[in-house]
Amino acid sequence: MSGLPxxxxxxxxxxxxxxxxxxxxxxxxxxxxxxxSTLDGYRLGIFETAVRYQMYHAIALLIAGALASRPDYSRRxxxxxxxxxxxxxxxxxxxLYMLALSGIGWLGAITPxxxxxxLLGWLALAIAALKTRSDxxx
Length: 138
Fold this sequence. Notes:
Mean pLDDT: 91
Number of domains: 1
Helix content: over 70%
């Protein structure tokens, strides 16, 4: 994405956020209607946590993508935030989905890697807001 014009980069980030949000709604509905009778309360709660964090970070992607069109925000840090949010969704929510559906306990060891990616994404978003392009951060 680094070689894309800023409008294309921002559009791709918004598209990724919208797709992750769509999937969160779809998976949430699947859990509420299709898994309620299949999973016990503990595993259903794990699945719902995955959906919730996926939606939070899909919205964060939408914000990062919208900010990418603003000339005063660092595109480099916004792209870094978007990458971290996307990776966090895949690792955090993905590992929780698999854990809830399979019951394989070691999958929970992957979840903190996704949580760390979320934290890095929020840090990168904060830096993007504080570091202007005139500071040399394109």
